C-alpha cells in the first residue's frame, strides 16, 4: 500500500494548484477585502438563526404523516437535516465521482489521481504505523501465537512482554468480550499513569472513559449538556465541524467566538466574554466552552498565559471546559509547547471543586495516525457522583468501545521508554514522522504565501493549513450565479483542474468575505 | 455557589430518563461483590468470550496479519500462519485505503459491503445493493442512528415488543420519542397477535402519538422465539397498511436451536410477497459479529441494510455517519470474514467448521439444559429458548416475597435477583429491565456458561430458588399470574 513520497506528490500538485489558481483570478490585482471587525461571520450567524427559526417552528404540531412513506426528508428528525459536516460533504462526493471516472476512463482528466487533503487521515497518504504498536495489537488479536517458539523470531521481545501484560489485565484474556463500559480497568490505569507523567499531576482511572475515537465522547458530552436550543455552547470560529454538527444534532445553540487571523489565530478572553454576554442577553444558558488546542483547522498552539485566562473565565462563569487536545503531539515550532488544560488548572491550584473539565484525546492523530482503529478517551474531572453515574449509564447502553482501540489508546499514552528493546526504532519512526510533518507544514505555508491573492498563517500544530484566498469580484459573482458559496466554487475548480480535494473554509466558519481552504 | 455547567439539575432530562438494566443495579452490585473476592458468574449480557468461548482461529489469524503487515513480508510467516489466512489478509488490506489505520468510507469499506451484499443474495435469493449497506461500530450504533433519524419528538412513537432488549427503550428515551409497547404472549410461546398491534397503534393515535416504526427482534431477546414466515408476512402487511418502517433486529439469526422454525429474514419475506409490499414497505435490517457462533462482542462490528428508503433520506443518514468519519476498520474485516467464510477445500476449512459446529451444537444443548433446569424448580416456568442466547424463566413470586421486596424498597424481581446473586454468585438481569406484564416476574440469564459448569450452576440456582420459595410461600398459592 506504499504511495509515492508525500513531498513529491505535493510539489506537482502545488504546480497544478498554481495554474488553477491563476486561471480563476482575473488579470487585474484582486481588490482588498476588509474582513475583520466585530461583525460575526455570515455563515455562523446564518446557522444560529436557522437553528432558532427551525426549533421554534417545531413547537407547532408536525405535518400529517405520509401514510406510505414514514421516513422521507419531510418527516425525519429536522435536527438531522440541519446539521452539516463539510469535511466529508459535497466536495468529497464530487471527488469520488471523479475517481470513478479516472478508473473507467484513464487519461480523461487533467490529473492522474485524486489527492484527498480534506481530512486528517495520514495512513491513507502513505504514513506508516508505529511498528511496536502494531506488534502488540497483532499479538493481542491472536494470543495463541504467544506460546509458539517462532513468535520470538517475528516479534520484538518487549512487544511480546507488553502483550502478555495487557492480556493479563483482561478477564479471561478474552479480547473478544465486551469490557467494562468505561474500558478495561488495567488500561485505564496505564493511561492515568501516562497523563500523570505528562502533566506532573495525578489522574484517576475512574475519570477516564475509553471511546471509539474522540468524536463519540464529544457527542456524549453534547447530549448531556444540551436539553434544548436554549442551551448554548461556545465554539471557536473557525472550528472543526464535528462541534457544530453535534450541537445541531442535539438541538442546542452554537455560540461562536472568533479567533483573530491577524494575530496568528489568537483567542482573546474579551471576545469570549462579549459572546457570552450577548448570548445570555438573548436568554441562552451558556453551558460550555470548546477549546481546540492545538487548533483545527487553524493550527495555533495556545500560550500558557492564554490558557490560564481561559481557565479563570470558565471557573468564574460556571462553564464546562471541553478541551479537544487530540493534536497534543503535533507541534512544529520550537517556541511552543503543549500544556494540557488539566495541568494548567492544577498548577493554578484549581481542583475538582473549582472547574468541570473534559479532556479529549485520540489515537488518530499525533505521530501514530491510527484513524481507522477508532480509539480515544475523555478524562472528566470536577463532576459530581450523580453526574458521573449518568455519564456511565449513557456509555453502558453501547456496552463498550472496541477493545483493539482501547489497547492502542493505552500504548499511545505509554509508549516504549529509554532502555526498552524497541525504543530506538520507535523513536526513529516517531521523529521521522514528526519532522516530516513539520517540514511539510513549512513547505506548504511558504508555497501558499507565494501564490497570488493568498496569504497563509503558519501552522504551529495539528495537521492543516488554512490559507486565506482573496477572491476577485468576478469570481464571487460567478459563484453567486452558480448559487454556490464562493470558496466552494473555488475548491470545485481546484478539484476539477488538479484532483486535489480540500475543504472550503465556510465548512469551518469564517469571517465574511475572506475565503479559506483546508489543506 | 453559581450554577455550573454540569450540575445534575441542569442535565438533559432525556439522559436522566434512560434506563439500561443490562449494566444497571444488578451488574454493579455483582462487580462490587467480585471486588470483595466473591466468585461471580456473569450471565447478565450476551458476552460469550467472557464465559470461556474461544474465538474462531481463522479470523484472528487474518486480522493479526492485517494489524502487522510487516509479517507478510517475513519469509517465515508461513510457519506461523496458514496460506489461506495469509491470502485473505492480503485481500482485505488491498480493499482498504491505507491499511487498518486509515479512516475508511463513512459507510464502510466498499469491498466489504460488496461481500455483505453477496452474502445477502446467497441467504435470501434477492440481490442487495452495497450502497444501501452501512457498516457500523456494532449493531447498537446502527440502531441508534436510525432511531435518531426517525424520532422528531415526543409525538413520534415506536412500536417495541415487551419484553424487549432495552437498547430500544434507552434510545427512544435519549432521542425524546415515545415507546409504544406491544405485548408478546408468554403462554403462546411469546407469540404476537396482529390485533394487539392494531390496538396499540390506535390507542397511541388517540393520545396524539404518530407511530412511525415497528421493532421486531428475531430471534427474540430476551424471549428467544423465532418468528414464522406467516408471522413475518402478517407483520409486513401491517406495516404496509399503517405506513410504518420495520426495524428488523436479526443479530441472532445464526443462533437457532429448533428445526421447526429456521431463520427467515424480513427482507426475504418482504421480497417474496411481491408488489406492492416489496416495493413500498420500508425496512432496515441489523446484523452483527457479536453473536452467532462468532461472539466477537469486543470488536464492535455490525451493519444495517436499507430497503425502500428514499435516496434523500439515505443521503441524510450518510451525512450523519460521516460526522463520526468511519466505523473501526478491524471490525469491518471481521464482518467481511463472517459473511464470506471459508469453503470446502480451503486449508483452514476443516478447523473452521469444527470450531463453529462445536459452539452451535453446545449452545443447542445448553438451551435445553437450562430450560429443563428452570422448569424443574418450584414456582418457575420457562419457555424453551428457540433462538438467541438467553433464558427468560417466569418466577412466580409469592405475595410475602413481593411484600418483603416492597419493604426493602426494591422492585420484586430485583429483590429476587439480588438475593440470588448474594447466595450463588449468579448475576442475572431482572425481568423488569426488559418489560413484562404487570405483576408477572422474570429474570434473564444467558445460556453461555460453559457446558461442563451448567449442571452445577442449575443445581445452585435450584437450591436457592426452592429455599426462597419455602421461605416466602404461605402454601395458599402463588403470586398472581
TrEMBL record, chain A:
<dbReference type="Pfam" id="PF00155">
    <property type="entry name" value="Aminotran_1_2"/>
</dbReference>
<dbReference type="InterPro" id="IPR004839">
    <property type="entry name" value="Aminotransferase_I/II_large"/>
</dbReference>
<dbReference type="GO" id="GO:0004021">
    <property type="term" value="F:L-alanine:2-oxoglutarate aminotransferase activity"/>
</dbReference>
<dbReference type="InterPro" id="IPR045088">
    <property type="entry name" value="ALAT1/2-like"/>
</dbReference>
<protein>
    <recommendedName>
        <fullName>alanine transaminase</fullName>
        <ecNumber>2.6.1.2</ecNumber>
    </recommendedName>
</protein>
<comment type="subunit">
    <text>Homodimer.</text>
</comment>
<comment type="similarity">
    <text>Belongs to the class-I pyridoxal-phosphate-dependent aminotransferase family. Alanine aminotransferase subfamily.</text>
</comment>
<keyword id="KW-0032">Aminotransferase</keyword>
<dbReference type="InterPro" id="IPR015422">
    <property type="entry name" value="PyrdxlP-dep_Trfase_small"/>
</dbReference>
<dbReference type="InterPro" id="IPR015421">
    <property type="entry name" value="PyrdxlP-dep_Trfase_major"/>
</dbReference>
<comment type="pathway">
    <text>Amino-acid degradation; L-alanine degradation via transaminase pathway; pyruvate from L-alanine: step 1/1.</text>
</comment>
<dbReference type="InterPro" id="IPR015424">
    <property type="entry name" value="PyrdxlP-dep_Trfase"/>
</dbReference>
<feature type="domain" description="Aminotransferase class I/classII large">
    <location>
        <begin position="172"/>
        <end position="515"/>
    </location>
</feature>
<dbReference type="GO" id="GO:0030170">
    <property type="term" value="F:pyridoxal phosphate binding"/>
</dbReference>
<keyword id="KW-0808">Transferase</keyword>
<keyword id="KW-0663">Pyridoxal phosphate</keyword>
<comment type="pathway">
    <text>Photosynthesis; C4 acid pathway.</text>
</comment>
Automatic annotation (TrEMBL), chain B:
<keyword id="KW-0808">Transferase</keyword>
<dbReference type="GO" id="GO:0030170">
    <property type="term" value="F:pyridoxal phosphate binding"/>
</dbReference>
<comment type="similarity">
    <text>Belongs to the class-I pyridoxal-phosphate-dependent aminotransferase family. Alanine aminotransferase subfamily.</text>
</comment>
<dbReference type="InterPro" id="IPR045088">
    <property type="entry name" value="ALAT1/2-like"/>
</dbReference>
<dbReference type="Pfam" id="PF00155">
    <property type="entry name" value="Aminotran_1_2"/>
</dbReference>
<dbReference type="InterPro" id="IPR015422">
    <property type="entry name" value="PyrdxlP-dep_Trfase_small"/>
</dbReference>
<comment type="pathway">
    <text>Amino-acid degradation; L-alanine degradation via transaminase pathway; pyruvate from L-alanine: step 1/1.</text>
</comment>
<keyword id="KW-0032">Aminotransferase</keyword>
<comment type="pathway">
    <text>Photosynthesis; C4 acid pathway.</text>
</comment>
<dbReference type="InterPro" id="IPR015424">
    <property type="entry name" value="PyrdxlP-dep_Trfase"/>
</dbReference>
<dbReference type="GO" id="GO:0009853">
    <property type="term" value="P:photorespiration"/>
</dbReference>
<dbReference type="GO" id="GO:0008453">
    <property type="term" value="F:alanine-glyoxylate transaminase activity"/>
</dbReference>
<dbReference type="InterPro" id="IPR015421">
    <property type="entry name" value="PyrdxlP-dep_Trfase_major"/>
</dbReference>
<dbReference type="InterPro" id="IPR004839">
    <property type="entry name" value="Aminotransferase_I/II_large"/>
</dbReference>
<dbReference type="GO" id="GO:0047958">
    <property type="term" value="F:glycine:2-oxoglutarate aminotransferase activity"/>
</dbReference>
<comment type="subunit">
    <text>Homodimer.</text>
</comment>
<dbReference type="GO" id="GO:0005777">
    <property type="term" value="C:peroxisome"/>
</dbReference>
<dbReference type="GO" id="GO:0004021">
    <property type="term" value="F:L-alanine:2-oxoglutarate aminotransferase activity"/>
</dbReference>
<keyword id="KW-0663">Pyridoxal phosphate</keyword>
<feature type="domain" description="Aminotransferase class I/classII large">
    <location>
        <begin position="84"/>
        <end position="450"/>
    </location>
</feature>
<protein>
    <recommendedName>
        <fullName>Aminotransferase class I/classII large domain-containing protein</fullName>
    </recommendedName>
</protein>
